[in-house]
Amino acid sequence: MSTLVIVESPTKARTIRNYLPSDYRVEASMGHVRDLPQSASEIPTSVKGEPWAQLGVNVEANFEPIYVIPKDKKKVVKELKAALKESDRLILATDEDREGESISWHLLQVLKPKVPIERMVFHEITEEAIQAALDNCRDLDEQLIRAQETRRILDRLVGYTLSPLLWKKIAWGLSAGRVQSVAVRLLVMRERERRRFRQGSYWDLKALLTHAKHRFESKLIALDGKRLANGSDFDETTGQIAAGRDVVLLDEATARGLRDRLAGKPWTVSNIDERPLTRKPAAPFTTSTLQQEANRKLRLSARDTMRIAQNLYENGYITYMRTDSVHLSEQAITAARACVEQMYGQEYLSPKPRQYATKSKGAQEAHEAIRPAGSHFRTPQETGLSGREFQLYELIWKRTVASQMADARQTSIAVDLTVENALFRANGKRIDFPGFLRAYVEGSDDPDAALEDREVILPTMAVGDRPQCGEIEAISHETQPPARYTEASLVKMLESEGIGRPSTYASIIGTIVDRGYAQMTGNALIPTFTAFAVTDLLENYFPELVDTGFTARMEQTLDEISMGKVAWLPYLREFYLGESGLETQVKQQEDKIDPNEARTIELDNLDVKVRIGRYGAYLEAENGSETVKASIPKDLTPSDLDPQQVELLLRQKTEGPDQLGIDPETGAPIFVLIGSYGPYVQLGEATEENKKPKRASLPKGTTPDNVTLEMALGLLSLPRELGSHPETGAKVKAGLGRFGPYVVHDRGKEGKDYRSLKKDDDVLTIGLERALELLAEPKKGRGSRSKKAKEPLRELGAHPEDEATVNIYDGPYGPYIKHGKTNASIPEGETVENITLERAVELLAAKASSAKSSRKSSKSSTTKKTTKSTGTKKSTGTKKTKSTSQ
Fold first, then answer.
1. Taking Cα atoms as reference points, which of 149, 165, 166, 183 lies closest to residue 56?
2. Is 744 helix (H, G, I), strand (E, B) or coil?
């Protein structure tokens, strides 16, 4: 007999297996083995007729949840039960957080073990940590389980009660969520601010001076003792200087006149202010700060950050990545300080070990910050990692090590210079001692380069000195609307408001984008018209549910339930069934909500109606006795919809598209149109004979107003063949695709190699030579700075049939063998190191045969269903005919 250890994932199982005795068997549950029903088909027959069945929670009987084992988990449960029969002890080793505790509890309910049970927790997967966890097993924490279950029930009640209301009143398929809807409202509120924003403009002067052969810049800050206006002095809703601001506002004529008047006049240093500054290193990473920094530096989404961090944790590189604590263990502090001494020297070490206090609400201080695993921190180069895993580990390593380094000491220098009635200022910064900046600079990928950027050296000057002015420039400025949220700034806002848990932010943002409430443009999260409609409805009829304060208090109550300070059942009863509970509110408000009003979005300064329809947002306007409807392009955001855009869309609908000219080859007209996915050009009209005329999207940044006939002809001729690749003889083409203009090296069956064009490249004029330069550059993935091709764990050689490579890669469910488009998992009991090329070919052949058989079976099944369905339809049709004839 053996001891059965259950963890969540195969990767974690493989890593832990290395540190356990040989009589321990480690299996993976693949996450939760049961959950609330996700669809009507999963609702047990015994409760299907109940009014609460769709919720999956019996609100009439103490909110008892109805748990089911999903189809894709039945095999896992069967295998775990079989493994348990061969074991005389069960250790539940799921993650140490509330979710992990919940998974362990569900495993107990499903497996019903009759052997001794223990709960093992650890925050890193190293031999030392696993051994310590084995020696300190405990019982399951009932309070954590209850708190997690309450959270799950609460989320289900909110989502499954409000979502059907949104289907009825706005559009099918919409969803609401306890935290999701608050996050969407934050995006919408920011977009409303951008719509209300009115741009202001101002001018100032910049002078280039020389002193002691050293050149430096200075800017105008005051005239006649009165401060010069800058961007912060403007009222964002009027575009004018805010009331009560006593400042000088320069326009273009005044600025240029002042520049000319000051030219050649003597300059004098009137004041010098030097202030010492001390900067302390940032705390080690929590889940949310890791997501923020990975988004800023590595352009990783919150979802990708968590996926990569999970992989690093499960392979033993970092500690547990779901934590809101900045605490470091003594072991970690010792390891970090050893790294500092070894790599930077004693002078860069902080005099005393640093320990940080968590400021976020409801933080679990028993956890540890995210850091490199073990008592010795492997440098990034020692890990053997590559690509994004290397980048994220390096980020964590640098942040942890820097947390134990000395303060950075800087001197801020401000030099005031007077010329006639104008006061200029030159700002400098001297780094006296870089301290932790040598290892880590927030918001930068290159600490050494960032160090140089942060230091602005001014020449040594004294009051009364007279530097020489070489050039004065008048500069125009325009105020900018409030910045849209990025993933990083949204995560920061949610955490600062105490909304949700950091571990859920990645899935929340993913859901918002997947459900069509926001789109990612660059690094910005832009809410859609649907987001506006849903937010308007919830604000008007259920204001508490999208109020940040109410949601934060709800989060606090859930934390108090986990600590035993609040009883879970009375809280749920009051929230859902109370006098002002959710169920009561929905019943009271449902009849008050007019679907036509709910689907209509009110936007300032627009005379037309914006409505949400079956296929997205559209405009509705009266044109005499007729109502005109025009679709709004999907990339046109609420804040960018202005009267000019509205006029263009409606005119196209009423008068038809603008004709640019005639195609000289076909004689067909060429039109400029705006469709659901933005502006495009079209060759000929759409008719019964020509249902799909040739179309081409306009390049990003090109508007319908500046499209010429020549440009349209060029776009419609894409993709252009540029010539042959000198190494392969294959064709090289230029085209315009979903992600913008590109060049492609088309090698037929061997694949296509794409590169995006640079900012200065023109898809209509680029030549072969430039295309070859781009194709020679390393390939970069979207959303990352330098996404490298995935590195294989092992290269086995060439496949005997087609000489294509056969490699082993690491995947989310363990290592697998890859040949072309065929992937085959490595069977249990076999290792990456033991797989030979011959064995790999066998496994690939078995997988290909299995896939072929599966497709055949599926096709056969589909054919049978179609035949059966057709027969039924014929029968029904015959009956209808008879009935009609009678």
1. 149
2. strand
Active site residues: 320
Query: 295: which 2 tokens?
Result: 């988004």
Task: Let me know: does 211 contact 224? Beta carbons within 8 Å.
Answer: no
Three-state secondary-structure class, residue 721: strand
CA distance linking residue 207 with residue 189, whole number of Å: 40
DSSP tag of 375: S
Distance CA 3, CA 1 (A): 7
- pLDDT tens digits for range 75-105: 999 999 999 999 999 999 999 888 999 999 9
Query: Looking at this protein, which amino acid is placed at residue 404?
Result: Q
Token pair 């369905």: residue: 869
Average pLDDT over residues 229-252: 94
Share above pLDDT 90 across residues of the chain, in percent, rounded to a whole number: 59
> Cα–Cα distance between 850 and 858 in angstroms, integer?
12
Q: How many CB atoms lie within 10 A of CB 641?
A: 23
| Count of beta carbons in the 10 Å neighbourhood of residue 617 | 23
Mean of per-residue pLDDT scores for the chain: 87
Element (H, E) at 386: none
Instruction: Specify the higher pLDDT residue, 199 or 851.
Output: 199
Contact indicator for 626, 620 with CB cutoff of 8 Å: no
Half-sphere exposure of 144 (CA within 13 A, CB side): 16
Query: What is the mean pLDDT of the segment spanning 689-714?
Result: 82
pLDDT tens per residue across span 266-311: 999 999 999 999 999 999 999 999 999 999 899 899 989 999 999 9
Question: Residue 878's pLDDT is what?
Answer: 36
Distance CA 760, CA 773 (A): 14
One-character DSSP codes across 821-838: TEEEEPPTT--TTT--HH
Q: Are 102 and 145 within 8 A, CB to CB?
A: yes
Neighbours of 212 (CB within 10 A): 9
Q: Which two tokens stand for residue 809?
A: 């890669």
Name the DSSP class of 787. Answer: P
322 vs 329: CA distance, rounded Å: 16
User: For the chain, what is the largest distance between any 2 Cα atoms, rounded to a whole number of angstroms?
Assistant: 112
Instruction: Measure Cα distances from 167 to 40, 53, 598, 613, 710 in Å.
Output: 16, 18, 11, 12, 47
Neighbours of 532 (CB within 10 A): 23
Distance CA 2, CA 217 (A): 75
d(Cα 287, Cα 309) in Å, to the nearest integer? 10
What are the tens digits of pLDDT across the range 5-59? 999 999 999 999 999 999 999 999 999 999 999 888 899 999 998 999 999 999 9
**Does the pTM of the predicted model rise above 0.85?**
no
φ and ψ at residue 110, rounded to 5 degrees = -85, -45
